[in-house]
Structure formats: C-alpha cells, structure tokens
Amino acid sequence: AQKITQTQPGMFVQEKEAVTLDCTYDTSDPSYGLFWYKQPSSGEMIFLIYQGSYDQQNATEGRYSLNFQKARKSANLVISASQLGDSAMYFCAMRERSTQGGSEKLVFGKGMKLTVNP
Amino acid sequence: DTAVSQTPKYLVTQMGNDKSIKCEQNLGHDTMYWYKQDSKKFLKIMFSYNNKELIINETVPNRFSPKSPDKAHLNLHINSLELGDSAVYFCASRKLAGGDEQFFGPGTRLTVL
C-alpha cells in the first residue's frame, strides 16, 4: 500500500499567486516526520520544509508553509507568491522507522510537477 | 563548500560492465544512504549505513554492493550492469541523533547501453 500519496501529477500557477500541493500519508507509527523536497530540472534534491508528528504548530520556512492536518493524515505544501524559479518537481516524503536495525529512511511520494507561468 | 558530493555526475557504460559511484559528506553525519530514482522520477531507498555499518538493505540485487570505509564516505559498486540499472542514484546523509533533514548529493545519472 502506498504510504505517501501525491494525487496531482502536474499543476500550473500564475506568478505571484499562491499554490497548494497535496500530500496524504499513511502510518501507524505515532512518531514520524514529513518532508517536502524540490527537484528542479537540474536534478538536485533541495530540502524545503519539515513537520514532526508531535509539532503543535504548522511548519513555515519563508514562502513555504506546511498545512499539517494530523487527523486527516495530510501534509500539504503551500507556496505563497509563486516565482518562476519555483517551477520544478516536488516530492512529499515521510520519515519511517525501518524494520531493519531500527534505522530510519525516507519514503517518497511519486512527486508532482509545478509550472509557474509568467 | 559542498555538503554531500558524488562522483561521477554522469556515467555511461555498456551492459555487463562493473562500475562504482563515490559519495562523501563533510557534515559530520553518522548516517548515509543510497537512493535510486527511476525514469518515472520515483525515489526509493536502497541502502543505509550508520557509522560504517549496514543497517538497511531494501531487497537490492546482490550485484549492488555498498562500502563505507569511514563515516564520511559511502561508495556504491555495481557488478554486471543491466539496462534496468539506468537511473539517477542519490547519496544522502543525516545526523543519527536529533537530525531530521536528509541532505542529498547532486545525483549520479547512470546510463547502461
């Protein structure tokens, strides 16, 4: 079963508008972390924002905020005032404890492509 | 100052060859990972090392053998390359205790012909 679901394969937004990228997750572990990464066309993976399962407040990092709704198991990324440079693939990921050795790993969603139009 | 570096950035080789990808991190992290991103952009963990010790092996074929000579390095050796091995391979690292973010390297694009 998919643990991280990103249902929007692609989205278009006008420059300077806000956009919400959807992510739902599935876990029975009470302690987990949720991440968003950006992958521009150049290919590198850029960390954007992190939300811990016990964090009381929604995470914010500059123009990025995470709309964390624990009961609904959703962790949507909100980008305010979109810029042309925001055009990229966006991946939602969950930190999960591995059954092997108690280590932790990231489980990624399939990603979604955001295009910001001028 | 590169945090996580990988070499080479691009690797084109023939089926059946053996190749290695190197990864180094200068962040003082304890844990290092290899992820594979396939042609559909799906990212999946392959291996994880804590302090040079293999912790996670996600049902990766035996042809893939990671090696960690020290905490700062995690190399990936691939024997008898197959067409399906073509992908982008990312190295990542994080602090074992108290670290949340995984820092990714720039990726190595492997093309098997």
Write out key terms for the chains shown.
heterodimer, A: 118 residues, mainly beta, 6-stranded mixed beta sheet, 4-stranded antiparallel beta sheet, 0% helix, 52% strand, B: 113 residues, 7-stranded mixed beta sheet, 11 strands, 56% strand, globular
What does this structure look like?
The complex is a heterodimer of chains A (118) and B (113). In chain A, 0% of the residues lie in helices and 52% in strands. Chain A is built from no helices and 12 strands. Chain B is mostly beta strands and 113 residues long. Helix content of chain B is 0%, strand content 56%. Chain B has no helices and 11 strands. In chain B, the strands form 2 sheets. In chain B, strands 2, 4, 5, 6, 9, 10 and 11 form a 7-stranded mixed beta sheet that branches. In chain B, β5 (43-50) and β6 form a beta hairpin. At the A-B interface, β5, β6, β10 and β11 of A face β4, β5, β6, β9 and β10 of B.
